[in-house]
Amino acid sequence: MNNFYGKFFSVGGPIDLDAFERRDAASA
Known about the structure:
Number of helices: 2
Low-confidence stretches: none
Shape: flat
Order of helices and strands: HH
Distance between the termini: 19 Å
C-alpha cells in the first residue's frame, strides 16, 4: 500500500492526486 501511494505522489503530485480522486469516485 505504501509503495502504491509513494509511486502516485512521486509521479506528479496534485495532478496524480486529482486523477486518484476521480478513480476513487468512479470506483465508488
